[in-house]
């Protein structure tokens, strides 16, 4: 009698390790992105809020210093559209699809109707009813 060898056990183990490894890399990248975004937010806005409270309590903060800290916070808001595409592939694809400066030459420009149809949760019936309305 011969007992057939079942090779599924080692393959399943390596597959689960590969799956766990892939998800741990994604989790690490998400943590890194979130850490950078929150870190930049705190570095930019925390001095502004501390100074704002200090100004309310004692009124001893020079106006120029307060303006510099306000603009530091504005710079953080300016950096967000730069940071998101650097770290998020899906965000980069979405922006490339809708911004004319980032679209590839072969891609068609989406129309306003296709955008509204894509954003609504309606099926093909909405397209026919939209044609009837127009």
Descriptive notes:
With 134 residues, the protein is mostly helical. It has a domain at 17-96. It has helices spanning 8-58, 63-87, 89-98, 112-119, 124-133. Residues 113-134 are annotated as: Disordered.
Summarize the entry for a quick read.
The chain is mainly α and 134 residues long. It is 78% helix and 0% strand. The longest helix is centred in the first third of the chain and has 51 residues, at 8-58.
What's the count of strands? 0
Please tell me what the overall shape is. Answer: elongated
Structural class: mainly alpha
Termini separation (Å)? 76 Å
- Unreliable residue stretches: none
Give a short account of the largest sheet.
none
Strand portion? under 5%
Keywords: Cell membrane, G-protein coupled receptor, Membrane, Receptor, Transducer, Transmembrane, Transmembrane helix
Subcellular location: Cell membrane
Domain G-protein coupled receptors family 1 profile: 1-84
GO biological process, one term: positive regulation of MAPK cascade
Write the layout of secondary structure elements.
Layout: H1 8-58, H2 63-87, H3 89-98, H4 112-119, H5 124-133
Main location: membrane
InterPro entries: GPCR_Rhodpsn, GPCR_Rhodpsn_7TM
Keywords: Cell membrane, G-protein coupled receptor, Membrane, Receptor, Transducer, Transmembrane, Transmembrane helix
């Amino acid at each position: 009698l011969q007992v057939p060898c079942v090779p599924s056990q080692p393959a399943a183990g390596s597959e689960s390790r590969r799956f766990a490894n892939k998800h741990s890399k994604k989790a690490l990248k998400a943590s890194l992105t979130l850490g950078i975004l929150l870190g930049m937010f705190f570095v930019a806005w925390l001095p502004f809020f501390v100074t704002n409270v200090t100004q309310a309590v004692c009124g001893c903060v020079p106006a120029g210093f307060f303006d510099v800290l306000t603009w530091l916070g504005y710079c953080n808001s300016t950096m967000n559209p730069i940071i998101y595409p650097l770290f998020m592939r899906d965000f980069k694809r979405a922006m490339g699809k809708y911004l004319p400066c980032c679209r590839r030459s072969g891609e068609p420009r989406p129309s306003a109707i296709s955008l509204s149809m894509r954003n609504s949760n309606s099926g093909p019936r909405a397209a026919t009813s939209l044609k009837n309305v127009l």
